[in-house]
Amino acid sequence: MTAPSKQAYVPFVSVANMMKLVLYVGLERVLTDLCAEIEDDFRRWGEFDKTPRVASHSDVGVIELMPTSDGETYGFKYVNGHPGNMKNGLQTVTAFGLLADVQTGYPILVSEMTLLTALRTAATSAMAAKWLAPKNARVMALIGNGAQAEFQALAFKAICGIEEVRFYDIDPAATAKCLENLKGSGIRLIACATAEAAIEGAQIITTVTADKQYATILSDNMVGTGVHINGVGGDCPGKTELHRDILLRSSIFVEYPPQTRVEGEIQALDPDHPVTELWQVITGVAAGRTAAAEVTLFDSVGFAIEDFAALRYVHGKVAQTGFCEQLDMIADPDDPRDLFGMLLRSA
Ligand SMILES: NC(=O)c1ccc[n+]([C@@H]2O[C@H](COP(=O)([O-])OP(=O)(O)OC[C@H]3O[C@@H](n4cnc5c(N)ncnc54)[C@H](O)[C@@H]3O)[C@@H](O)[C@H]2O)c1
Predict the structure, then answer these.
(1) I need a surface site. Which of 107, 121, 284, 329 has the fewest CB within 10 A?
(2) Tens of pLDDT along 44-98?
(3) Ligand 1 neighbours by CB, cut-off 6 Å
(4) In this structure, are 235 and 175 located in the same domain?
(5) Where residue 30 sits, what CATH number does that domain have?
(6) What are the contacts of 274-280 at 24+ separation with CB within 8 A?
């Protein structure tokens, strides 16, 4: 059997190589770089094919495909959300993804995206807060201390200058894990016994819990004026975190309305309730925060362009560092029409 040709191989970033890459570049550097990459792609929003992600729901969770293309490169992510997984020792969210050359349709990168999703979600959250949060915000409440939590804390430190994070989770072991993992981070870490205690003195409130139902992580009386809410955990039909009354007095910013209206906190509102698209704030087409007393809400659900930007970043870094393996992934017969002959000759 002859060895596969050069065209057969696609660079593959395993979990082990993603960890090496992130630690080599530096965690806060990666978060800052991803924030810049995602912001660049939000600035050229009009160049992308956009579609709400394709979701397959079950009683226990969701499996989604998230495609987009800028005409030169195509990307997609496979991602799941299974809030019950954790008690069985499994991740709530796992993901992998791919980039391909639009000219030939040939894949140019395959990558793990469980870690990359946590990184890009945190970078996107901090990017939104950069535009929307009160100036000089230094304290953030972080409610939900699971897999995504430390990434959120570090992104807000690196990108928004957050100095103190106040943690709350229904499971104190999750909070203890965050405090242990972040002890050398330079962030002032406060464990709180209730969500109310966590939001005391916080200018930014991040909710990143997982539950396959409508939950009320924040009720209306808990949210004072002038704060920015980064709502990350409400990202599926029937799965939200904020009381509707908070939405009614917030200025709401979203990624892609056709997707967020189905999946985000705003599923609780009328379908024509006014929202602002984040890309419009970044390009100056729409205003972000306009008053100190305003409550701003980033109703994050995660959009394909963020994953595309993250994969493009990894593609560039892999070319520089070689942190990948080559997968024999594309059948490449000598004569393109002789796929069958290639199979016969392999016997
Ligand atoms: N918006 C996005 O782009 C995006 C991206 C990734 C993940 N997510 C979502 O973020 C959420 C968190 O993901 P994860 O991987 O960290 O999940 P995880 O299961 O690892 O952690 C969730 C944590 O929330 C805690 N929790 C549940 N109910 C709570 C409550 N009422 N109050 C306080 N804490 C509570 C759990 O104890 C757990 O520690 C999920 O809902 C996931 O779907 C969103």
Answers:
(1) 284
(2) 999 999 999 999 999 999 999 999 999 999 999 999 999 999 999 999 999 999 9
(3) 81, 86, 92-93, 117, 121, 143-148, 169-171, 174, 208-211, 215, 217, 232-233, 235, 300-302
(4) yes
(5) 3.30.1780.10
(6) 275/299, 276/251, 276/252, 277/45, 277/253, 278/42, 278/128, 278/131, 278/253, 278/254, 279/42, 279/43, 279/45
